[in-house]
Amino acid sequence: MFAAEPMLANPVAFGFDENGRVFVVETFRRHDGVTDTRGHMGWLDDDMACRTVAGRVAM
Questions:
Q1: What does the pLDDT look like over 2-56, one tens digit per residue?
Q2: Where in the sequence is the domain holding 22, given as residue range(s)?
Q3: In a domain, 50, yes or no
Q4: Is residue 21 part of a domain?
């Protein structure tokens, strides 16, 4: 074992590079997750139409 709590919590993905190093992705989104957009599919068209950071902020 190369990583365990308290060094690592909530792992969701991992990968290895060409040097054998391990990279782990953690998430701490429980109860604070991203907005469920399945009921707002129109937002996707608006989001894809934004071409600048300012446009995304305005959206």
A1: 777 888 888 888 999 999 999 998 887 766 666 777 888 888 888 888 888 888 8
A2: 11-58
A3: yes
A4: yes
48's CB contacts (< 8 A; 6+ apart) are none
In the chain, the N- to C-terminal Cα span, in Å, equals: 45
> Does a structural domain hold residue 45?
yes
Whole-angstrom distance, CA of residue 27 vs CA of residue 10? 6
Radius of gyration over every alpha carbon of the chain, rounded to an integer in angstroms? 18
> What's the structural domain count of the chain?
1
Distances (CA, A) of 35 to 8, 13, 43: 25, 21, 12
Tell me the whole-structure pTM to 2 decimals: 0.43
